[in-house]
Every structure is written in C-alpha cells, then in structure tokens.
Amino acid sequence: MDAQLRRGVLDVCVLAAIKNEDSYGYKIIKDLRPVLELSESTLYTILKRLEEAKMLVVRSAEFEGRLRKYYHITPLGLKRIEEFKSEWRELSSIYSFIVEA
User: Based on CB atoms within 10 Å of each CB, which residue in 27, 45, 59, 86 is the most buried?
Assistant: First the structure.
C-alpha cells in the first residue's frame, strides 16, 4: 500500500477508535488489533501528529499511581472521519472499475 494512503488510513483508524470514548495508548492498540497490527511507536507518532493537527486533545490523569494520557477526539477529528468516509466511497468506485477491467 502506498505510504501516504496507509498513513491516512491509520490516522482515521486511530480517530475512529476514540470516537465514542476517550482512550489511552494501550487500549487503542488493543481495540484496533482485530483490524490491524499497530506498534506502540507507530501509535504514539500518529497520536502526536493528530494532536498537532488539533484532531484530538490530550489530558493526563492518575491511574494506579502513575500518570496516563487520555486522548479525546475534537470536532476537527470527527470531521476528518466524515471526510474519509466520502473519500473511501470514491476510492471504492475506482477499485471496482480496476477490478472489473
């Protein structure tokens, strides 16, 4: 898969994983495991990029005596998911054309 396309898909997968509730790194990896393997280093790179793009915000909270970062999707992150769905419909049509050729 093209690196740029993969990057965009991974970004949206992470956003989708936190769409309905705030989450933290290990849980995001666990939630995504049924659909893709994601290393911690890759995840934290994605989370940092999404935070810089203002698609999510981070808060720290104590959990069992240590600080844990929780990620919350922003309206911009929700908008990105919707844009991706629209883009995916277009890509799906292109894919069908190629497969049927």
Answer: 27
